[in-house]
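Hey, sorry to bother you again with one of my protein questions. I've been staring at a protein lately and its backbone has me curious. I owe you a coffee for this, so here goes:
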Amino acid sequence: MPVRHLLLALLVAAVWGVNFTVIHIGLEHFPPLLFSALRFLAAALPAVFLVGRPKVAWRWIVGVGLALGVAKFGLLFVGMDRGAPAGLSSLILQIQAVFTALFACAFLRERPGGVRVAGMAVAVAGIAVAAVDEGSTGPMSAFLLVIAAAVCWGVSNVLTRRAAPPDALNFMVWVSTVPVLPLLLLSLAVEGPRRDLDALRALDWTGAGVIVYVAWVTTVFGFGAWGFLMRHHPASSVAPFSLLVPVFGMSSAALFLGEHITPLRWCAAALLVGGVALTSYPPATPDGGLRGRSWCRRPRRSAGRARAGRLPRRR
């Protein structure tokens, strides 16, 4: 990768990591479901008029919009609003790689190799350590909501893989149009119209800046730049930079929010990031390279089908 592309990958990881600190600040201004709805509204408008028509079927846009926008971000924002620390949330969400692998094996008929299975086990051990740490210092219900958000992220990843969008920015902008109305209706039903109106009336420059950051910087710029990198480089070269997200997330939370990182949390971070790295890395080929098409082994064809597809040898 050229140096400018390496710097762009680092910038995207930093933007996504700092995003958790910005979300924490935003939750001081908005109820969580309303905040999530405003985030996607700002991400969709006016970008939806600039990116052109959708390039995948609407069923994939709606499916990812519900799984990622409504479920994943709704649960994440509610969990953080109930007390899940920003830095820990940035770390826990990385378990989505494990759920993505599991769902891919269940629904895409992919089989994980031994290294990936070991990585899943290490990552789950990291979650267990983080649960022990959070159970002694914070609300366990908020911790579980963030894990549920990671599950929904895994679902959306599998749906995105099936959709195979040729343009990541176009896809993400159209996906952002789906969660707005469901999240607004949920906010009115759960958080109440009075609380929503009070938050909108009290909108100040900080609240507006938070919405701009989580919508245009993390969503439009972040996913657009990430899609650009994925189009120009192998996934095995780009994907590892996502492991830096919790590094920036925990560091920014400690710096700007004063969050204390306990020894147990450091241990959980090492296990989880290491496990996700093993889960995410493609297996090596016999010549020392990396397989680019799939990071899981697909079921082998039966011997009969394999023999049937061969041409007879010439004598």
Q: What stands out?
A: DSSP finds 15 helices and no strands in the chain. The longest helix spans residues 205-232. The CA atoms of residues 38 and 178 lie 12 Å apart. The chain has a mean pLDDT of 85.
